[in-house]
TrEMBL record:
It comes from the Bacteria. This is Cupredoxin domain-containing protein. It is found in: Periplasm. It comes from Ramlibacter agri. The keyword rRNA processing does not apply. Keywords: Signal. InterPro entries: Cupredoxin, EfeO_Cupredoxin.
Length: 111
């Protein structure tokens, strides 16, 4: 009985911890439409882990890429993806769509 109770207690604790950790991340929505990011400028809190939900509303794939933030993710047309960003120091972090780099550009401002 004790090992089962211990296992259940650990499983419950892990579930609560994971739920708490997921809820602690501020989430930001970014759309890709007509090969542009909307919004193109995003203000976020500094020094906390972030979650970006990027929805590609175009029919063609796009890549959300940022050398400044160390992120590279292809998002198929009509799909969305969750991207987790490490805590950022205050500053400006450029991002772009590698497949449409001339129009798909943006900046994250960590404050």
């Amino acid at each position: 009985m004790k090992p089962i109770r211990r296992t259940l207690t650990l499983a419950l604790a892990a579930t609560v911890f994971c739920g708490w950790a997921a809820a602690a991340e501020p989430e930001f929505a970014i759309a890709i439409k007509d090969h542009r990011f909307q919004p193109a400028e995003l203000k976020v809190p500094a020094n906390v882990r972030l979650k970006f939900v990027v929805e590609n509303q175009d029919s063609s794939p796009e890549e959300f890429e940022s050398k400044d933030m160390g992120v590279e993710k292809v998002i198929p047309g009509g799909k969305r993806a969750s991207i987790y960003i490490r805590p950022l120091k205050p500053g400006r972090y450029m991002f772009f769509g590698e497949f449409n780099e001339k129009t798909a550009q943006g900046v994250v401002i960590a404050e």
